[in-house]
């Protein structure tokens, strides 16, 4: 019996979203040709040199990031995982303390295969295990000493959560009182400005160093940066080389990062504001479903979670069929099960495409999706 030709799920999602006239969450997947055309659409002079081992356009990007964050310098990295490990390693060398205080849901704990311990011999302590950023009291009362406090802003796996500005100042103050340095895992720091009501330099100034991503929020190809004092970034560049991050040329990633800064950064305030309206509409549409929840409501950034009491496999298939048949992707096509029986969640990102939807349209479309889901289940 011949094997059934099964479409790769990732390819099916790509083709489905490419065929939709509208999608609420995220951005429409691009072809390679579209991506190259987009790189040429910015204001950067394409007749200037590219880069060789980090000069040229990479240097221009580093200077731009330092200006945006108000730091003395910035260093480009090919990946955020490498940038995070280098930052924590540098601070451990400087403080003489290999212990890092972080949240159990922080990116190095969940998504980096414990590289901080496997590669650098560092260890972590958890001031809090609650699904939120630790409070100042929890940092102050942590039972073990630590040299670095790492704060993920926003805390993605807990629902893209942020503290208030006053709470953040207090947490940083508590770490300083323990003679610890503060590092911001700010992969999505760009989108925190509306919530904090402070400009990026004022937010970054609370920390001794900051990591930012160029593909999260800004939609770049890849890459990240560490920003802080020049002595810190110089040390970080040394470890970047040792970790294999001194690539011969990285101009496509650098150019796409500059393009994202130019295009997406000015729009983030509108994205965050519309995300609140969208989240409210979705919450209203799922209110009659026991166990359904939008979290947090309202969102702290332009990203939030939606929890529904159905298996992920059913949600993935129904969401994909709904998009294929209607030409509109109102909810993401990827759902996840966190280990709770019968409960799944997805993450929504309200960016440029999401602005095309009114809150009323979102509510109606989610209601139609739920009717199909009940019929399929």
Automatic annotation (TrEMBL):
Cofactor needs: pyridoxal 5'-phosphate
Record's keyword annotation contains Plastid: no
Pfam families in the record: Beta_elim_lyase (PF01212)
InterPro entries: ArAA_b-elim_lyase/Thr_aldolase (IPR001597), PyrdxlP-dep_Trfase (IPR015424), PyrdxlP-dep_Trfase_major (IPR015421), PyrdxlP-dep_Trfase_small (IPR015422)
KW Nucleotidyltransferase (keyword) present: no
Domain Aromatic amino acid beta-eliminating lyase/threonine aldolase stretches: 53-283
Keywords linked to the UniProt accession: Pyridoxal phosphate
Similarity field: Belongs to the threonine aldolase family.
This protein's name: Low specificity L-threonine aldolase
Phylogenetic placement of the source organism: Bacteria, Bacillati, Actinomycetota, Actinomycetes, Kitasatosporales
């Amino acid at each position: 019996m011949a094997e059934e030709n099964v479409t790769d799920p990732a390819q099916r999602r790509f083709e489905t979203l490419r065929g939709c006239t509208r999608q609420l969450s995220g951005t429409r997947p691009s072809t390679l040709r579209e991506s190259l055309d987009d790189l040429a659409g910015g204001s950067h002079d394409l007749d200037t040199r590219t880069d060789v081992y980090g000069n040229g356009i990479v240097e221009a990007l580093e200077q731009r990031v330092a200006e945006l964050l108000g730091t003395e310098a910035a260093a480009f990295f090919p990946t955020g995982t490498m940038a995070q490990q280098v930052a924590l390693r540098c601070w451990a060398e400087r403080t003489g303390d290999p212990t890092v205080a972080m949240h159990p849901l922080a990116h190095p704990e969940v998504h980096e295969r414990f590289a901080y311990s496997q590669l650098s011999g560092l260890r972590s302590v958890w001031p809090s295990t609650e699904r939120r950023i630790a409070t100042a009291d929890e940092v102050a009362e942590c039972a073990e000493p630590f040299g670095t406090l790492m704060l993920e802003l926003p805390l993605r796996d807990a629902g893209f959560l942020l503290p208030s500005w006053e709470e953040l100042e207090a947490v940083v103050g508590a770490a300083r009182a323990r003679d610890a340095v503060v590092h911001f895992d700010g992969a999505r720091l760009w989108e925190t400005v509306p919530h904090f009501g402070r400009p990026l330099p004022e937010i970054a100034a609370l920390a001794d160093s900051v990591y930012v991503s160029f593909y999260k929020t800004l939609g770049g190809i890849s890459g990240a940066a560490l920003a802080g004092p020049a002595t810190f970034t110089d040390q970080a560049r040394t470890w970047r080389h040792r970790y294999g991050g001194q690539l011969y040329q990285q101009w496509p990633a650098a150019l796409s990062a500059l393009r994202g800064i130019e295009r997406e950064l000015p729009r983030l305030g509108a994205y965050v504001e519309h995300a609140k309206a969208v989240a409210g509409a979705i919450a209203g549409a799922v209110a009659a479903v026991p166990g359904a929840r939008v979290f947090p409501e309202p969102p702290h950034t332009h990203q939030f979670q939606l929890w529904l009491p159905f298996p992920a496999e059913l949600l993935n298939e129904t969401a994909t069929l709904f998009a294929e048949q209607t030409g509109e992707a109102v909810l993401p096509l990827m759902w996840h099960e966190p280990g709770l029986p019968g409960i799944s969640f997805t993450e929504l990102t309200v960016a440029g495409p999401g602005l095309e939807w009114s809150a009323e349209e979102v509510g109606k479309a989610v209601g139609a999706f739920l009717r199909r889901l009940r019929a399929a289940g």
